[in-house]
Amino acid sequence: MAYKVRLAEFDSILQAEKIDLSKLQELCFAGIPDDGGRRALCWRLLLHYLPLDRSCWLQYLADKRKQYHSFVDDIVVGGGMNSSTSSSSEALHNSRPSDIGELETSSGSISRHNNSFDTPSIGTDINTNKTPSSLPVHKRSFSNTSSITNSSSSSNSLCSDHPLNLSPDSQWVSFFKDNEVLGQIDKDVKRLCPDMCFFQRVTPHPRADTPRLCTRVTHTPLHSAPLHDKLSSSYSRQRGSGTRKSPSPPPEPLPPGTEAHWEVLERLLFIYAKLNPGQGYVQGMNEIIGPLYYVLATAPSDAEHAEADTFWLFTSLMADVRDLFIRTLDESESGIGRLMTRLMSCLKDEDAATSSQLTCQGIKEQYFAFRWLSLLFSQEFPLPDVIRMWDSVLASPDRHRCLLLLATAMIVLQREKLLSGDFASNVKLLQNYPPCDVGAIISKAVELSDRLVT
Amino acid sequence: MAKKTYDLLFKLLLIGDSGVGKTCILFRFSDDAFNTTFISTIGIDFKIKTIELEGKKIKLQIWDTAGQERFHTITTSYYRGAMGIMLVYDITNPKSFDNIAKWLRNIDEHANKDVEKMILGNKCDMEDKRVIPKEKGEDIAAEHGIRFLETSAKANINIEQAFLELASAILSKTPGRDPAQQPDSNVRINAQREKPSQRCC
């Protein structure tokens, strides 16, 4: 009965012409019902993606989704490669018209015509004075080492840029740099949430027209002797990066036109990294984008827009937590170092005994809190629990304070074990937080919020 | 006084590029199992395993670090306390091999001068994808006077061997480990100059 009342409360807020954000935040903090795609809708609102005025939604969503797909066209389709080598020469000089801006591949920046674009940017991310590249923009058409050679030989006569060009303006230089970023993303998205098979499954909403990014990071060993011909040809048919162990069992090559959910995440993170070159891709971003995408892609409605909408939700959430991912900001006011210090001072205020136990044993906050806080607890709990915790985190007007209260609650709830444990068992306990009811952590955090100054 | 369950405590550190298999190596050693589905290590992780060497119970406290550059400020703070460091590359990933020099510089900058080092070329079960010949690994190890082994966490090749070798190198220069052998150990203090291990996988 109480559940039905809650559903009705949600619906009355969500169906209003103008959404009451503070009421919605209050409701969501206590957990969003799984039914009817309410969570996907609420997260879109809590992350300020959807405007509060319902009447703008359709047009706004259409614009944002179109904008995202033009990023895909420019960065993945236009700036990447084409899977067939035969089309390489006809694709040369095929500069793609774009409705949102020109891509300058050499600096990885985009100049945008759309002023409403609000990707968070810091330092070098700010797109100010980029002039479009003077080089002809051509599609590069290769998927492995041998076709790189093909493509370059055909382009040499037409274009001064070539794969061995060391000039910083060379599109090839940026292409190879991009592949390094991609290699890292590829490793991480394939090992996201390995305890569930969702991300390995085929998405019902692929972007079938885009080249497979993961094939760009496939290492093909350059064997010189014909002896190895058989080996290398059988290897080159495999998808995925040769630099990492394949998930078990090794993924079968997917038929053309289909993709797995992790490939969608790979594209999203690559585009994010390209649009935010000062930040790039940092390990752990996969753990932040994973739950967002999961909630949107498994919702009963709008799942076909999960990719585009996830991009904007991720962008918005990163605006809040991106400083935690930037090494040079570690000790700044908004960096992870400062946040961890604040956590330890919260703990000291709340539970001096446990705090001094950790200090005496030499258990530093970096051992556990670095991961807890920077990943918003996403590696500490099973995905459904993470999602429940995020209902509260996303609903909090001050997300950093919310993270601190939750983390303090997590430590305090283990105080008995911590007070009796030795160094090794305590580090293990905090690095492998025991299965628990996350509701209890959230309740404890609420209790702490009344008396703790963070 | 509480009963001690071990005689010596050695602190070890695993470093190397992202995705070379550091976590898998540690998991194979500590739990004797292989799991392809590890999530990426963020920051630093930790395991304990007790071994016996020369009749001594040695507790190994092993720290597993994140490979990506971003985490270096966090992870380099662990170098100082480490008595042994395992530097891992992936024999199928040339970049991870090229970066050995960079990792060695990190060790020089942040670790104790007498830290025992070891280079591991992991994934040696993937012969068909090998790009770094074993000799190249041996050469760079010899050049720096460091122990070397090729390993496979998946096929359980040389994993225990690696930890035992590193631990005995540390033990051999631990003062007072065995009064009778003390002079000996001083002679062997440069044990890491020995010819790199020839064990094959």
From TrEMBL, chain A:
Per UniProt, the ranges with Polar residues bias are 104-134, 232-245
| Composition skew (Pro residues), residue ranges | 247-256
One of the GO biological process terms: intracellular protein transport
Which Pfam families does the annotation name?
RabGAP-TBC
**Which residues does the annotated region (Disordered) include?**
83-160, 224-258
Family matches, as InterPro entries: Rab-GAP-TBC_dom, Rab-GAP_TBC_sf
Q: Which residues form the signal peptide?
A: none
Q: Which SMART domains match?
A: TBC (SM00164)
Which terms in the Gene Ontology molecular function aspect does this entry carry? GTPase activator activity
Alphabetized UniProt keyword annotations: GTPase activation
Q: Where is the composition biased (Low complexity)?
A: 142-157
Q: Which residues does the UniProt record annotate as the domain Rab-GAP TBC?
A: 33-397
What is the name attached to this protein's record?
TBC1 domain family member 13-like
TrEMBL record, chain B:
Q: Name one Pfam family in it.
A: Ras
The record's annotation in SUPFAM superfamilies points to:
P-loop containing nucleoside triphosphate hydrolases
Q: List, alphabetically, the Gene3D superfamilies matched.
A: P-loop containing nucleotide triphosphate hydrolases
Q: Which UniProt keywords apply?
A: GTP-binding, Lipoprotein, Membrane, Nucleotide-binding, Prenylation
Q: Name the principal localization, coarsely classed.
A: membrane
Topology in membrane? Lipid-anchor
Put simply, this protein is called Ras-related protein Rab-10
Q: Where in the cell is it found?
A: Endomembrane system
Q: Which domain of life is it from?
A: Eukaryota
NCBIfam families named in the record: small_GTP (TIGR00231)
Does the entry feature the keyword Hydrolase, yes or no?
no
